[in-house]
Write a structure and sequence with these properties.
Blueprint lengths: L1 E6 L10 H10 L2 E6 L4 H11 L5 E3 L13 H12 L6 E7 L7 H18 L3 E6 L2 H9 L6 E3 L10 H5 L3 E4 L9 H9 L5 E3 L21 H12 L3 H16 L10
Parallel strand pairs: 1-2, 2-3, 4-5, 5-6, 6-7, 7-8
Helix pairs in contact: 7-8
């Protein structure tokens, strides 16, 4: 009973075998997947993919890479999608100072808009942060009470406090499995159990042993295993815990088998 809280299964690299990818995930014990959008086109694709599926849940939002393309028309369509009952989160949004595919001003504006939207709709926000820790913290603090998750958390223990203080959940990806990434594993140990999530961020960031290959939701089991090992926990129990956390944050259906 594992929940992949961040998967881009609409990505073009899944075009030829998407159904098989989803089936492999289910066979690997991945009972639920949050299908995360990065722009209007992918939001529409996510909703279409999730329609009629009781284990797939869509989001709508605009990634910082695409922030400069945000028009009033796109904002209106994203907002309408976010307001639909099947939409479980706003995003992903955030800041990316590593690649800066969009100007910083556009990223700030897009992030602020989506934080405010999430708070107004009372839905969680999915936050991307790359090389932008201090600015991300500043914008989160500008929106007290917003619910959400720091997706693909790649930092260490020292950066955790402001996100936890803001009430955010912390999600770990394949990055936590990399042998030299002791700092990220230490952070995975420091996150309170009731704020911990796991994800793939597929098709990116394949876990160790699969690096250089396309990532997919089935491999979230590897992320979970490494996090459980680092925390001295049982993977099956931690799967139930993180799935219960995902259900609470995203408003997913209640689990039949809650954690002990």
């Amino acid at each position: 009973m594992i929940t992949d809280t961040h998967a881009h299964v609409w990505w073009k690299s899944f075009a030829d075998d998407r159904d098989e990818v989803l089936q492999r995930a289910r066979e690997a014990g991945v009972s639920r997947m949050v299908i995360v959008a990065t722009d209007l086109e992918s939001a529409r694709a996510s909703f279409e993919m999730c329609a009629g599926k009781d284990d797939l849940f869509p989001t709508a939002g605009v990634h910082p890479h695409d922030a400069e393309h945000l028009t009033d028309e796109i904002r209106a369509e994203i907002e309408a999608l976010c307001a639909r009952p099947e939409c479980v989160a706003v995003g992903e949004t955030g800041l990316d100072w590593f690649k800066e595919f969009s100007p910083r001003e556009a990223q700030f504006a897009g992030f602020r808009w989506q934080l405010a939207l999430a708070k107004r709709l009372d839905k969680p926000v999915i936050i991307h942060c790359r090389d932008a820790h201090e600015d991300t913290v500043q914008l989160v603090r500008e929106h007290p009470g917003v619910r959400g998750v720091m997706h693909c958390y790649t930092m260490g223990v020292d950066e955790l406090a402001p996100y936890l203080e803001a009430g955010l959940y912390i999600s770990f990806s394949g990055v936590v499995t990399y042998p030299k990434n002791d700092a990220n594993r230490a952070a995975a140990c420091a996150v309170p159990e009731d704020r911990l999530l796991v994800e793939t961020d597929c098709p990116f960031l394949s876990p160790q042993g699969h690096r250089g290959k396309r990532n997919e939701p089935a491999l979230v089991a590897e992320v979970l295993r490494v996090v459980a090992e680092a925390r001295g926990d049982d993977p099956e129990r931690l799967a139930r815990v993180t799935s219960a956390n995902a259900a609470r944050l995203f408003g997913l259906p209640a689990l039949d088998d809650p954690p002990a």
